[in-house]
Amino acid sequence: MLSSLRTPSIFSLGLVITALAFVSGGSTVVQTAVAQQSAPQKRPAAWYPRTEKLGPDEMFVVALGTGMPTPITRAQKSTAWYVELGNGDIFLFDVGSGSMENLFALRPEFHRVDKIFASHLHTDHVGDAAALWVGGWLSGRYTPLHIYGPSGSKPELGTAAFVEGLKKTYAWDISGRSGILPDAGGGLIAHEFDYKQDGGVVYERNGVKITSFPAVHVLDGAVSYRLDWNGLSFVFGGDSAPNKWFIERAKGADFVIHELFYTPKGLEQALGFPPRQAVIVSSYIHTPPSGFGKIMAEVKPRLAVGYHTIRQPELDLMMIEEVRKVYDGPLVIASILQREVVSADRVQAPPTTMEYKKAKRSGQASYSKYINDGKWKGYTPPPLPER
Ligand SMILES: [Zn+2]
Ligand SMILES: [Zn+2]
Predict the structure, then answer these.
(1) Alpha carbons 377 and 357: distance in angstroms, whole number
(2) Is 74 left (phi over 0), alpha (psi -120 to 50) or beta?
(3) Distance CA 319, CA 286 (A)
(4) Which residue, 143, 159, 141, 139, is CA-closest to 151?
(5) What is the pLDDT of residue 247?
(6) Residue 315: predicted pLDDT
(7) If you placed Cys at 29, which of 20, 97, 165, 361 could pair as Cys (CB 3.0 to 4.6 Å)?
(8) What residues of the chain score a pLDDT lower than 50?
(9) How far is the CA of 66 from the centre of ligand 1 (A)?
(10) How far is CA 254 from CA 124, 230, 237, in A?
């Protein structure tokens, strides 16, 4: 299966692609770099969090999650992609349920992890947004978390409503932490854009341009993204049946991710769906392997990446066979081992910065006299340090 990654066609462009996988987390890490020298850069055989410095021209991509809303294997979380650029920017494309575990395993500098681009509002794509909002705030983020995402056919189905809903749902949580943690880090800001726009710019800063285009998935209001920076292009296809916008916008890009769903038979086998439901879900709401192969044959990326799978060897073979009937270019099914990431099951939190430690904290949670009087007199906490 590994031989399906045909590196010579990549090296001939004078570029280097290294792909690697999270052994424990079932995720894949792919690093795309514009080589400074003519020979491909030598990299260690294993990747250890916080041990390699990203080059100024490098794009570093990690699949934090590649799975389904049905976590039938502990080793695979729902969809989330971590993209770090040599200019210091970090972007998350989707934050599906469970994916925060793998984000923490990378031990990133959390004050830089402040932007989520949501493809659509299914739990397997945004289910950990609140976990990052709060977990990142506790781990070094002292500025708001920004969520970029599409509108829906009605206001209540859009990203802004989703974010307002999170704020209402977690009112108790956020009120209780505010003032003890940095004030601004508790902010959650929605950037909703028109889901219909085809190539509209949704983010442009620091030499990075991110555009969106529609996807065909269950309801209006699902999109895909393209990131362009420093001559490198990254395309993230959200859930979708094969669609014309993706073919056009992804054409010739360096790193192209598209969902690669099961065959209907695979779905019957993996999740016990009846045949009609299996065909609807795999081939009308999602893209089965034959569709994925056709898309990549048309798009011709430097590297094609499929995700949205349940990793089982039998299903992998079924998918590869279908894809290979129509696409013979470079291919990675996310979480196939390319380069081992050595990451502990239990990690130390990444260090916070002086800016985080000194950020303004204007208050402190308080409770009523009734609750205060419930404090046990037998225990005296240590005195509070000065602000
Ligand atoms: Zn999904
Ligand atoms: Zn979906």
Answers:
(1) 31
(2) alpha
(3) 14
(4) 159
(5) 97
(6) 72
(7) 20
(8) 1-28, 33-40, 335-338, 340
(9) 9
(10) 26, 12, 14
Q: Separation of 308 CA from ligand 2 center, angstroms?
A: 10
Q: Which ligand is nearest to the CA of 217?
A: 2
Percent of the chain with pLDDT over 90: 54
CA-nearest of 25, 184, 188, 19 to 103 is 25
105 CA to middle of ligand 2, Å? 25
The verdict on pTM exceeding 0.70 is: yes
Distance from residue 387's CA to the centre of ligand 1 (Å) = 45
Q: Ligand 1 mean position to 182 CA, how many Å?
A: 34
Delimit the domains of the chain by residue range: 17-348
Looking at residue 209, its pLDDT comes to 98
pLDDT at 54: 81
Taking only the tens place, the pLDDT of each residue in 282-329 is 999 999 988 999 999 999 988 888 888 876 767 777 777 788 888 877
122 alpha carbon to ligand 2 midpoint, in Å? Answer: 5
Q: Residue 70: nearest ligand to its CA?
A: 1
Based on C-alpha coordinates, what's the Rg of the chain?
A: 22
Q: Report the separation in Å between the CA atom of 217 and the middle of ligand 2, taken as the mean of its atom positions.
A: 7
pLDDT of 384:
85
Cα–Cα distance measured from residue 35 to residue 6, given in angstroms and rounded to the nearest whole number = 18
- Which pLDDT value is given to residue 342? 57
Topology adopted by domain 17-348: Metallo-beta-lactamase; Chain A (3.60.15)
